[in-house]
Amino acid sequence: MKVKALESEYKSRLYSLFESKRISDQQLEHFLKRGIQMINPATDFGLYALGQVLPEIVISARTSYINKMKIPYQATSFLAASTRKRANKAGDKERSPVSYVYKLPGKLAGGVPLLSGGKRRIGDNVFASTHRILLGSKAVIVSALNLMVNKDKIWNWRFFGNFVKESRPDIYLDLGRLHKRLNQKKSMYQVIIARSDCTFKRLKIVEEYRKNKIAVLNPANNVKVIFITNQRGYDYASKTIQESDLVQYIMTGQCFDSLEALKNLRRKFRVDILLNDGGRLMSNGFRDLGVLAEERITLEPFPGKKIMPDIEKIDPTSIMAMDGLGIDGNELEHAIRISSTKIGAEKANVYSYVLDGALIF
After folding, report:
1. DSSP letter at 90?
2. How far is CA 144 from each of CA 202, 206, 295, rounded to the nearest angstrom?
């Protein structure tokens, strides 16, 4: 789809939502001012293998809009699986809307590797890789808890891209080309939210750092890290994890202030785009504050009864989306779906949240 056609279709849907009273006139004006931007890997960059899987990549704000913000344009991404098979026969009616879960409590790694049927599907790996390249090129923000759960990993595009390296080397090469094309002179920051000294102590971050067990803090990996914490957190952690060319701190005063931290990221470190990879609780907090702009979710088909428990047994807190829950009647609560790309049995969807203009400008 061409950019103008996509923009026209998007505007038409916004006006339709306004006319049906699903969005207010203020929300309509907000989304129209933000606009959208589209990247076509094949046409724009000559990346034809990547373009076969993702013909278009949509971001829910124009560059000019992002440039005016005083905090980073923040996006996040998840994988979620259907809790049951969809009806596929004529006249076969479903008893209730299909829901999607993003975790399976009690399973290794939260059950996330099982959501795609226990094997890595190409759609999510490519979607997540491009998401990191486009929206995580300058910074990826995680909670301290997520850091320690994945302490042996580094959050760059290869985190997912390596899963297609053998099966689709042509796509892997295109991902590398896209990264080089867009990020030639950029240094990616790994931003870690550790709200206070209690967080550092509870998660034993300093102890694991001394043992060189945290990949992003290993000097050999040459990753630039920014800790966001309060004064007590800084006083405790910086004695051991000292400031250097690779490690810096943002202090928000005696009390932790996430909005002030975001302003500092933009002002001091020139981070205008930020990938939130901190987990559902953290991303929902930013969303409720009004500073999370968009969400990318790969919807996976039902992974099978051996993996997915009966609907009655599913932990309600693990449900991320449900048909009809969104502002526009789609899956994601509080959001409008602006793009959906079918990749085999998967769907790579982009959703847009309403931003609080008083906070971002």
Report:
1. T
2. 10, 12, 21
CATH number at residue 135: 3.40.430.10
Decide: helix, strand or coil at residue 18. Answer: helix
**94 domain-assigned:** no
Which domain covers residue 181, as residue numbers?
Answer: 3-87+109-307+319-360
pLDDT digits (tens, 9 = 90+) for 132-167: 999 998 999 999 999 999 999 888 899 899 999 999
Q: Is residue 92 part of a domain?
A: no
pLDDT digits (tens, 9 = 90+) for 329-357: 999 999 999 999 999 999 999 999 999 99
Note whether 190 and 155 are within 8 A (CB). Answer: yes
Please check whether residue 332 is in contact with residue 280, taking contact to mean a CB–CB distance below 8 angstroms.
Answer: no
Nearest Cα to 103, choosing from 321, 258, 266, 285? 321
Overall number of domains in the chain: 1
C-alpha span between 354 and 292 (Å, rounded): 8
pTM for the whole structure: 0.93
How far apart are alpha carbons 329 and 261 in whole angstroms?
34
Return the ∠ at Cα 189 (arms to 242 and 144), rounded to 5°. 65
Question: Which amino acid, one-letter code, is at 79?
Answer: L
